[in-house]
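SAMPLE LOG
Freezer: B-3
Tube label: C17
Construct: single chain, 214 aa
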Amino acid sequence: MIPIPFNSIFEAVGELFSDETSIAVSDTKEYIYYQPSKRIDLKIQVGDPVKQGTIAYKALSDKRKVSEFIDRDLFGVPYYGVAVPLWHEGEVRGCVSAIFPTLATGKSVVTIKHQDSWIPVPFTKVMYVEASERKTHVVTEKLTGTHKYTLNEFEFLLPREGFIRCHRSFIVNVNYIKEIYPDTHSTLVLIMDNQSRISVSQSYASYFRKLLGF
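STRUCTURE (predicted):
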């Protein structure tokens, strides 16, 4: 019998999950495999130690399945995770973790800075969010303002049913997409209701098509 490399096994397991799930595998001390998703990436590197407070650490310590929300202090972004210990000959030898993006926190508005004031804007009125010139710009139906959050943080704040990351610099509200055109090298161009043109980068194109069903 020819042994199957464990990386191939974990990659196949990753394919069973959606594009929104990251997979991390560790031994009892450090990570030995990590596959990030388009929706959430904890920036784990092979060889990184398993941090105290993570679901992997808790599963290894408690020697049982653990599922819970973890705040942003550990990896810079909040996440929901499920971790299961790996047993061999009666001992825990490692852990497999599935990492999911958190759902919206129940907020319904984002408060943006516009000129000398702060304006609460309903999520439904946000057309897209853009990162440029070291600032995060929130573009709405009637005005554009800035916010202290990064685009990565906005991914976890905005409702998942309406907003999609399409580029390292853009998150769009699908309800404001007027038209979609193919572009070079398997990328796409979005024409928004305000006539803005936004690129869907090659790394996000397949994920974008899958979520929009075309």
